[in-house]
Amino acid sequence: LSSLLVGQAPLDAQAAPSPAYWSEIQKRIKRQQRYPKFARERGVEGAATIRFTLLRNGSVADVTVAESSGHSRLDSAARRSVSEAAPFPPFPTGQHGDSMSLTVTIIFELQ
After folding, report:
1. Which letter does DSSP use for residue 13 in this model?
2. Which pTM value belongs to this model?
3. pLDDT in tens, 37-69
4. What is the number of H-type helices and E-type strands within the chain?
5. Contact between 29 and 8 (Cβ < 8 Å)
6. How are strands ordered across the β-sheet holding 2-8?
7. Distances, alpha carbon 35 to alpha carbons 8, 18, 21, 45, 56, in Å
8. What is the pLDDT of residues 36-45, one digit of tens each?
């Protein structure tokens, strides 16, 4: 049983988080990941890609499913992982912009 997190930083270097900040974002999301009991008991697996906006103060907005796992419970659990990980630390010194659009893929896989 595992739930993995695959992160994707923005391609635009101006909007991309520093490697250390990106690592912290991913770590916090990973800590909130929960494999839904209903899905686990029925052998449901999948990957949901979640897009969200991270604001300068560390709060999140617009947490949406960019690519469905094909299972609503996995999609909901993936969205919850991001929402419940907030607030994140505020942007580090030198981070440009007031917000950044980020994407993570959360993989639910039984082992």
Report:
1. T
2. 0.86
3. 999 999 999 999 999 999 999 999 999 999 999
4. 3, 4
5. no
6. 2-8, 99-109, 46-55, 60-67
7. 21, 29, 25, 9, 29
8. 999 999 999 9
Structure tokens, 15? 């909007």
Q: Are strands 2-8 and 99-109 parallel, antiparallel or unpaired?
A: antiparallel
CA 24 to chain centre: 11
Tell me how far apart the alpha carbons of residues 72 and 10 are, in angstroms, rounded to a whole number.
26
Residue 32 is given by DSSP the state H
CA angle 56, 73, 66 (to 5 degrees): 45
Give the C-alpha distances (Å, rounded to integers) separating 13 from 9, 19, 90. 9, 11, 18
How far is it, in rounded angstroms, from Cα 3 to Cα 42?
16
Read off the tokens for 62.
């617009």
Using DSSP's 3-state secondary structure scheme, residue 102 falls into strand
Residues 106/50, Cβ–Cβ less than 8 Å: yes
Distances (CA, A) of 90 to 22, 26, 76: 12, 14, 25
Amino acid at 44: V
